[in-house]
Specification:
Order of helices and strands: HHH
Number of strands: 0
Helix content: over 70%
Distance between the termini: 8 Å
Largest sheet: none
Strand content: under 5%
Number of helices: 3
């Protein structure tokens, strides 16, 4: 049985990560490539999105 509260919490975290990415959407490619910390932040946030999505799809409990 799927625990709806757990799935909702995971979806909320996923939405938060997506919002974080939307907030830096105006950054140019040049800025992105020249700023190592920004690049790592984006890469890590995308990775966390993938992990969260996988945890919802593969193990909703």
């Amino acid at each position: 049985m799927v625990d709806q509260a757990v799935v909702e919490r995971k979806l909320m975290l996923l939405a938060e990560y997506v919002q974080d990415l939307k907030e830096i959407q105006q950054v140019t490619f040049e800025e992105f490539m020249s700023d190592k910390r920004l690049r790592r932040y984006v890469e890590r946030t995308l990775w966390m999105c993938g992990v969260r999505y996988s945890s919802i799809a593969l193990d909703p409990l």
